[in-house]
Design brief:
Blueprint lengths: L5 E4 L6 H10 L4 E4 L14 H14 L2 E5 L11 H21 L3 E4 L2 E2 L5 H18 L6 E5 L7 E2 L3 H10 L6 E6 H6 L7 H14 L5 E6 L1 E2 L10 E2 L9 H7 L9 E3 L8 H12 L4
Parallel strand pairs: 1-2, 1-12, 2-3, 3-4, 4-6, 6-8, 8-9, 9-12
Antiparallel strand pairs: 5-7, 10-11
């Protein structure tokens, strides 16, 4: 049965359970959250009563919740202190996600900085293998996010993500989150019908549609091949409405969560507008 899971990233201010309340208040079918402060390496342990409230609300609302790692994590970093903290922080976030019953956590693959990208790819895969060994038995997966290709960041090419997945031992615990803004900025022309068709043909050949766990639904302030990660409201950027119409009506993506990461204020008015626009593109 066709089910379009649309939603947005929600703040966890006041507790992780509050994110579900916020999502439900604007009709989200799915939400993305951080499991701790996204600009800090570590956070206080989640209180048990907060975990229980989160699980209860998630069950009552039926909202699919997935997570995103903090912005400091870089599993490809050649800087020893950053790399070590990244491993510890990632382990902490995976443990939090597991306690909350979150199915997967989205990860920016990393940036190799002044070392060869190939080295960074191998380091990311090796680190993920080490993390999975330490949390053997956990259900939470890792979803590698497609990136815009700015600087030395890994993941702007499907082949780079494929290589990480190929080097990860436990294939059942690794997947992909496709960011529309990032992939367009990276050079994948999802704006035209032919470009859209070719993009997904390449994605399926390199990675496999079965590895797709989620979408970040964002328009782009910058153009094709700009390699700049600048999110814009739906229909207000370089992508326009057509790519989103094609994604929302593509049967291959039924039941795959799609979350906005566009700018917004505390009243979530921008999310409401963007979600209405997206919903209007769905063919009955």
């Amino acid at each position: 049965m066709k089910k379009i899971l649309l939603g947005a990233h929600m703040s966890i201010a006041g507790g992780v359970d509050k994110a579900i309340d916020r999502g439900e208040s604007i009709g989200c079918k799915t939400i993305q959250i951080f499991v701790k402060n996204n600009n800090q390496w570590f956070g206080k342990p989640l209180p048990e009563d907060e975990i229980e409230r989160f699980k209860k609300l998630q069950k009552e609302t039926g909202i699919l919740v997935f997570a995103h790692t903090g912005y400091l994590v870089n599993l490809a970093s050649p800087k020893e202190n950053v790399y070590e903290n990244s491993i510890k922080s990632m382990l902490d976030e995976l443990e939090r996600a597991e306690k909350l019953g979150i199915p997967f956590i989205v990860l920016h693959p990393g940036s190799s900085l002044d070392t060869p990208k190939e080295e960074g790819i191998k380091k990311i895969a090796r680190t993920i293998n080490g993390l999975f060994e330490r949390i053997n038995g956990y259900k939470t997966k890792i979803a590698l996010e497609t990136t815009a290709g700015q600087g030395s960041s890994v993941g702007s090419k499907f082949s780079e993500i494929e290589e990480i997945i190929r080097l990860v031992d436990d294939k059942k615990r690794i997947g992909v989150c496709f960011d529309t803004c990032h992939s367009f900025a990276a050079g994948y022309d999802i704006k035209t019908k032919e470009g859209y068709k070719n993009t997904w043909k390449e994605f399926d050949r390199e990675i496999g549609i079965d590895k797709l766990l989620a979408f970040h639904i964002n328009d782009s302030k910058k153009g094709l091949n700009s390699h700049l990660d600048r999110h814009e409201h739906i229909g207000k950027g370089e992508l326009g409405l057509e790519p989103f119409r094609m994604i929302l009506n593509d049967k291959r993506f039924d039941n795959i969560p799609m979350c906005l990461e566009t700018p917004k204020g505390p009243e979530l008015e921008e999310d409401i507008i963007n979600l209405k626009i997206l919903e209007s593109l769905i063919k009955p």
